[in-house]
Design brief:
disordered C terminus, mainly alpha, 8 helices, single chain
């Protein structure tokens, strides 16, 4: 069942879809670099990579990409491309913060599930009730820090995204030395829809 915000909204334009895809790819790459950089700075990169393993690392990257893609699309679901670049900052930051928190929890759950499966496949001991209880305790108590960190990262990405859109719009405005690249005589606009 569609809510009122999306029910009255026209279908997403190619610029809306391109914006969501571009931002989710940027967010995933930036989060990966951030996580690897932090692990390297604290001196735990080698042991973290050895402990995770190649297959689990690929699965975790795909999980990060999938959760970031989904939450970025959801955060932009209420905004068209034009609204995202023209609305005041709070209109962009609110969904970025909320869905950043969701992304933090979703990736945390994926991380715990990957580690649990990895432990179950590598372990020679039987799984006990205490192990299952510990798993759920980690999920329960880790969700709060995950939502807080995810919200802060989401807000930071919202600020970066809104700032970058503002710069892009300013550079694309007529009179910035740009010639009409679209060939339609209407100036450069943003030219995104025609390039998709």
């Amino acid at each position: 069942m569609a809510n009122r915000a999306t029910a009255s909204r026209p279908p997403r334009s190619s610029a809306d879809v391109l914006l969501a895809r571009s931002l989710s790819a940027f967010h995933t790459a930036a989060l990966t670099v951030l996580l690897v950089g932090v692990a390297h700075q604290v001196g735990g990169l080698g042991s973290a990579l050895a402990g995770i393993g190649t297959l689990s690392g690929i699965v975790l990257f795909l999980a990060l990409w999938a959760t970031t893609w989904w939450t970025t699309h959801r955060a932009l679901d209420r905004l068209t491309f034009e609204e995202a670049r023209d609305e005041p900052w709070p209109a962009v930051l609110e969904p970025a913060t909320i869905w950043g928190g969701v992304n933090g929890v979703a990736f945390f759950v994926a991380l715990i599930l990957v580690r649990a499966v990895q432990t179950a496949l590598n372990g020679s001991e039987q799984l006990t009730v205490e192990d299952v209880g510990a798993f759920f305790a980690v999920l329960l108590f880790g969700a709060l820090p995950a939502v807080v960190v995810g919200s802060v990262v989401g807000m930071a990405f919202g600020l970066i995204d809104r700032f970058a859109l503002g710069i892009g719009v300013a550079l694309a405005q007529p009179g910035n030395g740009d010639e009409d690249r679209t060939g339609d005589g209407e100036g450069p606009e943003l030219g995104i829809a025609s390039q998709v």
